[in-house]
Prior knowledge:
Blueprint: H1 3-8, H2 13-24, E1 27-31, E2 36-40, H3 47-52, E3 54-56, E4 70-72, E5 75-77, H4 86-98, E6 101-106, E7 115-121, E8 133-137, H5 140-153
Antiparallel strand pairs: 1-2, 1-3, 4-5, 6-7, 7-8
Amino acid sequence: MTHDEIEVMPAGRELDAMIAEELIGWKWYSRKSHDLSFLVPPDAAPEWLEKWCNPSHRQAERFEDWDAMQSFGSKYHRLPRYSTDIAAAWTVAEAMHEAGYWLRLQSPFEPGSSWRAGFTVHGCSGFNGRPDHEAGADTPALAICRAALLTAAR
């Protein structure tokens, strides 16, 4: 995905799935004979899933299905709404921090302007106070998600 495409990507389940897969470590599994696809959190795939399904790539037509909970063993996992829920977006910021980036989040400066979020590598850049990878959006959650994807895409 290009920088320009990420900059205009709307909040929603497709963006949430991209964040889960590319930044948080969720993995797609599919079983073509049953037309099933699963997006599974890190370390949550039971042994039988690895044997019954194949690791796969993103299934674009399936994104809307992720409003339902998925059960693996005795645990239920719901794909977080990273792009619309600030608490979920904050887990993205924490994951980026653990990966070695600091976050700068700026509220709108004047009416009609956007939230700005950006990430910079710890200790070696951003010396001018401006993040290396920055994005804007109408909400802080979406700005964090876009900036995180731009950082990962570099």
